[in-house]
Design a protein that fits this description.
Low-confidence stretches: 48-55
Number of helices: 16
Mean pLDDT: 91
CATH superfamily of the largest domain: Glycogen Phosphorylase B
Strand order of the largest sheet: 2-1-3-4-5-6
Largest sheet: 6 strands, parallel
Distance between the termini: 20 Å
Strand content: 5-15%
């Protein structure tokens, strides 16, 4: 296909093009291959090897954010005008600054990647700001305005779209669910074969509230007498102090707090017998499919995760459940599921195959990226 004839696309943002943000990296790479794409990117922060965001004072952070967005707006205004702009996460500030440009200087149509709501994360999920505080209301208003300015907002699940529409008082048709992009070169299928002996249970994540890390630690404590079941946690984040306290006296769980590359994570998953998803009590737990489930399913490993609204919605397709579901925030149920699977290698094999089949049918790039292509083409057609 003639790229120029198909669509003139602008990818503009403040994102990081690294493996730490695989969805953004995968989508941008695909769009550059698929369309006549011009990229303007001014990374808002830097992430050295090791994965942690470089720390600045609040004043320096604000100054850098302002400078980055001003440079970005100038580059867009002085560059060639495009049919459609796709703005990867984090997109809110980019959309707001583009709206300040005269109409003739900005893209005709805007597609915003709303992968994570900043307001929901700060106020509802992590409870860093009080809901009624002035700064919380200002953040809500800014994010709502960005969603209103955008012609289309891409979200990861239908449940996230419904939530955004409700919380920001916007039409649900504005939000389009598309599964995340996955690094399928690294997270490639590896047939599971039980080896006997120890059963290795793996959790990877940034230890945010939706993960329910205390539930995982509680299950490990209940299975402390099973010397054949060994837990491994990879990651660091908001709830690290809770995990540190919960691990007191436990010898059946190893925790590595350092950042791991995609290749390292894939190898860890491949060496595991059971992988763990999310078990938190926050509303966000119910509506998301975390990236860890993509990775587990892409490689093909038995996975235990919370019985959430998203999971129930995708297992209503008359197919074998891809994951072993347990009630969230229930360490007893999680421990029971792990013990059952530890004693039933045949069931682990069945779940591993089912997870990989599910990935291919519902989450793979071959499913998600053509939907993004069509969405951008429709945006362009709507402009014309």
């Amino acid at each position: 296909m003639d790229k120029q004839a198909a669509l003139r696309l602008l990818v503009v943002g403040v994102y990081q093009a690294t493996d730490a943000y695989p969805n953004t990296l995968g989508r941008v790479r695909h769009l550059k291959d698929r369309f006549d794409t011009h990229v303007i990117n001014e990374p808002l922060w830097t992430t050295p090897e090791g994965g942690s965001v470089s720390v600045r004072s609040p004043l320096r952070t604000l100054w850098r954010a302002l400078a980055v967005h001003v440079r970005l707006a100038w580059r867009v205004a002085t560059g060639p005008r495009k049919d459609v702009a796709y703005i990867p996460y984090p997109a809110i500030g980019v959309v707001l600054v583009l709206a300040l440009l005269p109409r003739g200087w900005r893209p005709h149509r805007i597609v915003l990647d709303g992968f994570i709501s900043i307001y929901d994360t700060v106020v509802n999920d992590r409870r860093l700001w009080r809901p009624g505080a002035l700064r919380s209301r200002m953040l809500w208003a800014l994010e709502r305005r960005a969603f209103r300015i955008a012609d289309i907002v891409v979200v990861d699940t239908p449940q996230s779209g419904d939530f955004y529409a409700q919380i920001f008082r916007l039409p649900s048709k504005r939000f389009t669910p598309i599964p995340l992009a996955t690094n399928e070169l690294v997270y490639a299928p590896r047939p599971y074969r039980p080896t006997g002996g120890r059963c290795r249970v793996l959790f990877i994540g940034t230890l945010i509230p939706l993960h329910g890390i205390e539930t995982i630690a509680g299950a490990a404590r209940m299975l402390a007498g099973r010397t054949d079941v060994q837990f491994r946690v990879l990651g660091d984040g908001h709830d690290a102090p809770k995990l540190q306290a919960a691990l007191e006296g436990l010898t059946n769980i190893a925790w590595e707090r350092r950042w791991h590359s995609a290749a390292e994570l894939a190898e860890e998953i491949a060496q595991s017998d059971i992988c763990l998803g999310i078990f938190g009590t926050t509303d966000k737990t119910q509506r998301v499919c975390p990236y860890k489930l993509y990775a587990y399913a892409a490689l093909g490993r038995a996975t235990v995760t919370g019985d959430t609204e998203w999971l129930r919605s995708v297992t209503g397709e008359k197919l074998d459940a891809p994951f072993y579901a347990v009630p969230v925030n229930d360490a007893h149920a999680l421990a029971g599921a792990i013990e059952y699977l530890a004693d039933n290698p045949t069931e682990r094999e069945r779940l591993a195959r089912g997870a990989n089949d599910f990935f291919g049918k519902f989450l793979a790039n071959a499913v998600s990226l053509p939907v993004l292509d069509s969405l951008l083409m429709e945006a362009c057609a709507g402009r014309r």
